[in-house]
Amino acid sequence: MSTPIDVQRARRETPGCEHVLHLNNAGAALMPHLVLAAMTQHLQLEANIGGYEAARQEEARIERFYTATAALLNCLPEEVAFVENATRAWDQAFYSIPFQPGDRILTAQAEYASNFIAFLQVAKRTGAKVEVIPSDEWGQVSVAALEEMLDERVKLIAITHVPTNGGLVNPAAMVGALARARGILYLLDACQSVGQMPIDVQQIGCDFLSATGRKFLRGPRGTGLLYVRREICQQLEPPLLDLHAATWTSPTSYVVRPDARRFENWEMNYAGKLGLTAAIDYALSWDPGEIERRNRQLATLLREGLRAIKGCRVLDLGQQPCAIVSFVMGNIPPCEIQHRLHSLQINVSVSPREYTLLDMDQRELASVVRASVHYYNTEAEIERALAALHELCE
Ligand SMILES: *Cc1c(COP(=O)(O)O)cnc(C)c1O
């Protein structure tokens, strides 16, 4: 039995709700008060007793990061690394894979720019090839097309679960079933899906998953995480090692630590790590299925309202679009819409062509407005945002 989201509780626990109408949860969601408190308390402690001493005193709470993330993703604590953002988490995984000339990297149409730039760099360096899996009639990764493409040269499947520029949800678990059956490495960018919907790495079947703290998880900026499946962790040496990831054992040798923390740095933002831990624990206090359900309800309300505005085109792909709503309105540039809404304390963002270049070019889009809801938004807020957009059109 699941209980619906207590929206009033969520709002009471989110100081930002008093100040802004926040529809930029895909950029950075509003932090709950608990997250802010965890960070400020730790900064205060560092100031009072010293940074190393504070970390030692709070060791148990800092270690909670690994068990909390394991509970969130359904994995083991030793399969989790704390990284300063999702891009570096993804990079640490991707650049650890030893590519050979002719190896194939398969990715998807809506892939994120930072990931694609890394593909191109590695292709240039190693002679590996980057290939894009065709999309199905919904704009999702075509699982049938992917199956056709698979052969022994495919070294990696790397796709984004939910892209940065719209409501598309790729069939991550169906891709995982194919990767698993063939023993192909599978790296999932789950930056926009973790915190927005239930994520179970066993069910998805990925080898790596990267996510950020500040988006739907509602953690602080400058935090991210990486999941690495235990069975492959020790086969891959991260591209960057330090004295935390490895131990210098003799003048000519070092030993890399066995768990996923081989992908971490020694120095990290402890206040941020504690803030992210608080955000994950907070997320675990809600039913993730109910978070997803409420997000879809709010996003649907927003899409329906947008479709009723003359000249407005809702652009979300996928069979069941999620909390990210993307649109354009007549000839009004997306950045102007963002600007005008901002002056009314309504936060949305703009997703430019070059963040998801293949998808945007295929659909001939220069940029889109991105309005992303979260469970603490209200129906009244959606109505207010729609009214403001109506007015802007006139
Ligand atoms: C935001 C985003 C990233 C990058 O996350 P950072 O924490 O900023 O590094 C990666 N992939 C997708 C799909 C994103 O939306």
Could you describe the 3D structure shown?
- With 394 residues, the chain is of the alpha/beta class.
- The protein has 2 domains: 7-31 and 287-393, Aspartate Aminotransferase, domain 1 (Alpha-Beta Complex), CATH 3.90.1150; 34-284, Aspartate Aminotransferase, domain 2 (3-Layer(aba) Sandwich), CATH 3.40.640.
- It is 40% helix and 17% strand.
- The strands form 4 sheets. The protein has a 7-stranded mixed beta sheet, with helices on both faces.
- It starts with 6 loop residues before the first helix and ends with a helix.
- The mean pLDDT is 97.
- Bound molecules: pyridoxal-5'-phosphate.
- Belongs to the class-V pyridoxal-phosphate-dependent aminotransferase family.
Shape: globular
How much strand content do the residues show? 15-25%
What's the name of the CATH homologous superfamily of the largest domain? Type I PLP-dependent aspartate aminotransferase-like (Major domain)
Give me the strand/helix succession: HEHHHEHEHEHEHEHEEHEEHHEEHEEHEH
CATH fold-type name of the largest domain: Aspartate Aminotransferase, domain 2
EC number: 2.8.1.7
GO molecular function: cysteine desulfurase activity
Keywords: Pyridoxal phosphate, Transferase
Protein name: Putative cysteine desulfurase
In a nutshell, what does this entry contain?
The protein has 394 residues and is of the alpha/beta class. It has helices spanning 7-12, 33-49, 51-57, 59-73, 86-94, 113-126, 143-149, 172-182, 201-204, 230-233, 270-284, 288-307, 334-342, 357-362, 379-393; strands spanning 21-22, 80-83, 104-108, 129-133, 154-160, 185-189, 208-212, 224-228, 246-250, 253-256, 312-314, 324-329, 346-347, 349-352, 367-372.
